[in-house]
Amino acid sequence: MTEIDRLVLAPDDIDLARSPLGRELGHETYVLGAFNPGLTRLPNGNLLMMVRVAEALRHPIRDGHVHAIRYDEAGGRFTIDAWPLEFADTADPRKFMIRGGGWKIMALTSLSWLLPVELSPDGLGRIAIHYDKAIAPRYDLQCYGLEDARISRVGDRFFMTTCSVSPERHSTTLYSSNDALDWHFEGIVLDHQNKDMLIFEGLIGGKYWAQTRPLGDLYFAYPPGSEWRAGPSINLASSPDALHWKPYEKPGIRPHAGTVATARMGGGTPPILTDDGWLTLWHGVEPSGIVGIYRTYWSILDRDDPSKLVRTDHAPLIEANPDLTRPIEEQMYLHDVVFTTGIVDAGDHFVVASGEADLACRITHIPKARFGL
């Protein structure tokens, strides 16, 4: 089959008049990005993207201050905080660093919420945007937003992991659903700065399994000459109920010392079971500029012990595609970034969903033969 690759949702497709932030802010906002969509197949056969909408202040810098949107649980409303510009580093359009205090302290120029977008069964046509099913922050632990949903179907139940951002913690929160449209908040399942949690789409030994990616500022060195590079890696954990997780003793997918393309890495799509094992797509980041170059790679893991690698490919599977974003080039603030977040089996191929340039949603059809399946 011919690979299909296109953008299916961009910022201008979002109607902010229907945003859960409403008009209570009193300041003009715009869609900084509609991207990094979780993906699953609905009971009716259509596909469902859970899109991260980053809603930003049109003029964050004014009156000598830089401003951030925050949800106030006590007041039950969204509000705006002002930080003196002299204490802020605003080099990155997505965030600003606050100087002083002895720690790295960050605030965001936008607040992210999640929007369900229903697509045709092939993922190429838009059926409906379910504004009435949008998920916005409702607790202080989410006060700076909800980011990067990943959806897994295990049996008849849907599970969605999200990153919840606040001064309290940068945690992984879980939602569950019977239909992938109406979601129940289950709470925090992984604590501070453990991102890219992906629940396997099936049980292993009667347990739920997940990929995780804890972050830190310190990593211990591998021995000289090792094939592995110290740094963030994709770890594994198991659970009896999808709520309480125990880290696995063996390592998962680690960065290779022979390439800078995986100097930083993390999970992409929830592992999906194939005849050869669990197929997982993940991202590797090559250092470059402020953000780096994000690419998508793949691995197949053993069906009984996902710490064992069956096969992989060091060549990228998906890279940023400037041809796709050329029609919306005036809205771009990042380049060389593709962040793959969802996969669905479609017979002889997979439908893969990615965020392109932290701006738009991209759907790619990839033949199973590409993975040797």
Strand content: over 45%
- CATH domain class name: Mainly Beta
**In which range does the helix fraction lie?**
under 10%
Coarse shape: globular
CATH homology superfamily = Glycosyl hydrolase domain, family 43
Q: Work out the count of structural domains.
A: 1
CATH architectural designation: 5 Propeller
Order of helices and strands: EEEEEEEEEEEEEEEEEEEEEEEEHEEE
The residue ranges in which pLDDT falls below 50 over 5 or more consecutive positions are none
The gyration radius over C-alpha positions equals: 20 Å
Could you give the distance between the termini? 14 Å
Mean of all residue-level pLDDT scores: 95
Number of helices: 1
CATH topology: Tachylectin-2, Chain A
Pfam families: Glyco_hydro_130
InterPro entries: Glyco_hydro_beta-prop_sf, Mannoside_phosphorylase
Protein name: Glycosidase
Family: Belongs to the glycosyl hydrolase 130 family.
Descriptive tags:
single chain, about 375 residues, mainly beta, Tachylectin-2, Chain A, five-stranded antiparallel sheet, four-stranded antiparallel sheet, 1 helix, about 50% strand, globular, Glyco_hydro_beta-prop_sf, hydrolase, hydrolase activity, acting on glycosyl bonds
